Fold:
Amino acid sequence: MEIKILGSGCPNCKRLEALAHEVADELGIEATFTKVTDPAEIMAYDILSTPALVIDETVVSSGRVPRKDEIAGWLEAIEHTE
Amino acid sequence: MTVLSYLVTLLQTGMGSLAAYLAAHVLLCLLPAFFIAGALSALIPKEAITRYLGRDAPKWISYSAAALGGFVLAVCSCTIMPLFASIYSKGAGLGPAITFLFVGPAINILAISFTGVQIGMDIALARILLSIVFGVGIGLIVAWLYRKQDAAREQASDSSAAFRAKAHVPVQTWIFFGLLLGVLIAGTLQIGLLTQSYTTFALPGSWAPRLQAWLDGIVPPNPSLGIEGVSVQGVLLIGLLVLIGVTAWLGLNKIYDGFTPWTYASLGLITLTLIVASFKVSAVDGGLLVGLTGKLVAEVVLLAAVWWGAARFFDEYERQEWLWEMWRFVKQIVPLLVVGVFAAGMARSIVPATWIQAIAGRNTLWANLAGVLFGVFMYFPTLVEVPIAQTFLSLGMHRGPLLAYLLADPELSLQSILITNSVIGKGKTAVYVLLVTVFSTLSGLLFGAWVNGTNAWLIVGLVVAGIAVLVAGSAWINRRSTRRAASAEAV
Structure:
């Protein structure tokens, strides 16, 4: 699974990254983490504001830091389809 | 020796200006405003507004959303540029995007309340009203000038799915905002019901007048330059602010790990500060005279309701989000604001009042244009435009050019022009900058004329006529574009 965090290093982007790491560890999901900081690359995704969370090239949230159980839900749902 | 005394005067005016900003009435405005900003940012999903900005939305809805959206979306003028860039590149119409860019910096809660308390409600209201009217106007004009190009852009790309996301804001969140706004309004509204003391009592103590005399020695009040001194109450408030700073640093920086005793300590101290600031205290012979004001009662009731609502309406995660966003804004804005206030205060004793009066002492076309140009070429961090404007005011600037400056400063700076340029291109940016210059100057002139007391109805008439022309223009554009779409379908 590939998890991307989109954002130009704002405090909330760092929090989202830490949170995603934490949830993946708790669920025992193997994932690669990528931080996307290049504005052009960020705008290629269908989002209006950062931070955004992208799992396997699907935007699951943007413009906010989601709750841990939300992140867990997305990770598990995508894990099942794989 | 003269150099030394000059430096002392400089420091004193800087400190005087800083002290005035830490005074009771400013705290009653700024503390709640930061909590509201944090709540808007944390508790209202951006989708609640952005869904109306896509080009599928009817014109009148997308322009209204763009004009009012700044209040919810951009709680600080520092977040306008990135949002503008993303809504435009994701396919919002050029017009609404431009309207959002223009109105946003003027309409956010921090700017409005800060301007209102420090410079006057007249300027704050004029800043909101004129920026909405002219923001929609500039959006419509730019959209009309580039209608062909924008239509081509529209066909080249699908309207982004990003605009289709919807969001629901529960009723209790609105109630909560009502309570927070109540705290802000009760503390700042200057009406007798709130400001007068219903009972007064005296605290004996001969230290009070001596302390006051000592404070007046360090920071001499200078009414001619608009410098208030520091009061005994002010010293107490500054002490409380230092304690808030320390406890908030310990309790809010890691709010996501949970609420700690430090968190509760800082929230308690903030509540206490608002309550202390609501008393009317004056140092008299033999002690302190303490007045229980109407706003004290209102603040106590409303603050209790706010904390009750925070505990009742939201879960722990939402409370953490709220406090974190609030704290993030404070950390981002307050340090620069303190430096800005100090520097703007010192400028009062450096800049000769005769210069300001010669350039912008009267409400002329050139004075208003000068205000706008100063705003464009000087870049000040968020909210620092307010102490700068206050310095100008105390040096004798007319309120008309002052409004022109206040409108232009957060809108246009060399930096924001460069970013706008990279988003929408050279030609459109040039037109935008020109229009902002013209309309800000015009706003200043109209407001200045109103301040001078001439023909209030004529000004209202002019503005209404202007709105009518704009509405008619937009209806015309709308009809043309639907007709074109219809004929395209027929083909």
Remarks:
- The first helix of chain B runs from residue 2 to 21.
- The CA atoms of residues 173 and 313 of chain B lie 7 Å apart.
- Chain B has a mean pLDDT of 85.
